[in-house]
Amino acid sequence: MKLTETASMPDTQEIQSIIFAAIDELNVQREADRQVEKSLDTKLFGKDSDVDSLDLVNLIVSVEAGLAERFGAAVTLADERAFSRKSSPFKSVHSLLAYIEELLGEDPT
Amino acid sequence: MVVFSSRLDRSYHENLQKLLFFNPNQAQVAPEILRAIERYGEPRIAVIDDRLRVALGSPTEVQTLFVLEADQPGARLVGVVVYTREEDTLVVVYVALDEAYAARGMKAQRLLFLRIVDELRSVARRIKGVGSLTLFCGGGVARRIRVR
């Protein structure tokens, strides 16, 4: 994953906006009483989550597209690197944001 | 650990039947399943050369990817995905996950559906002329995922 020359370094607020925009996109497809909350504490899977497997895939793909558009970065979030972590980066919005910051902040060399 | 395989021995027939046709999670995605049946036909299990495969009640040629739990003796079947190529994209036609791996199941943290998508991206990348993966989400919305 590389940032293009024209892209600026990621900002936490911008990444959060991209994730929240992906949640908005997801909510369009959900009933009014099943909206996913736009909060850092929102759980993305497990018993306390209202997000199902297909929603999670949809959300991750939307975030990847948002990152590509904003930062010119082809980021794959759901891969073996993420799956092999002891604590999943997809546990909550907060952990997803931290994971994206980590990926985008890496030295491309 | 889960492993992916395009082949499944016929001894898994009952497990595959249970996963595809008697899956408790199906009720949650009933509209999506009905849409897929309307477009591609009903899935059925076929036995060819002692191997199982999923065929459709339409002329569409499909591929099947089976997901097995390999960290237990006997390699339990925990997922199946049926997909087809349509021009420059691989279309996911059916997905069935074991209840334990569903979003609120005991093994939800293993993120099986995301792993399946990752595997399908790899498959798509290996096919010349294929640049995306297509998933049908809620409301029949087609979501294209770039793979290159």
Please, could you describe this protein's structure?
- The complex is a heterodimer of chains A (109) and B (148).
- Chain A is mostly helical.
- Chain A is built from 4 helices and no strands.
- Chain A is globular, with a radius of gyration of 14 Å.
- Chain B is of the alpha+beta class.
- Chain B is built from 3 helices and 8 strands, in the order βααβββββαββ.
- Chain B has helices spanning 13-21, 30-40, 112-125; strands spanning 2-5, 43-48, 51-56, 63-69, 76-86, 89-97, 132-136, 142-146.
- A 6-stranded mixed sheet of chain B has the order 1-4-5-6-7-8, sandwiched between helices. Chain B has a two-stranded antiparallel ribbon with strand order 2-3.
- The radius of gyration of chain B is 15 Å and the shape is globular.
- The mean pLDDT of chain B is 88.
- Chain A binds chain B through residues 29-30, 45-47, 49, 51-58, 60-61, 64, 76, 78-80, 83, 88, 90-91, and chain B through 28-29, 32, 97, 102-104, 108-115, 117-118, 121, 135, 137-139, 141, 143, 145.
Number of domains of chain A: 1
Radius of gyration of chain B: 15 Å
Broad shape of chain A: globular
So, CATH architecture of chain A? Orthogonal Bundle
CATH level-1 class of chain A:
Mainly Alpha
The biggest chain-chain interface is: A-B, 25 and 25 residues
Number of helices of chain A: 4
> How are the strands of the largest sheet of chain B arranged?
1-4-5-6-7-8
Summarize the structure.
By secondary structure, chain A is mainly alpha-helical. Chain A is 49% helix and 0% strand. Chain A is globular and about 40 Å long.
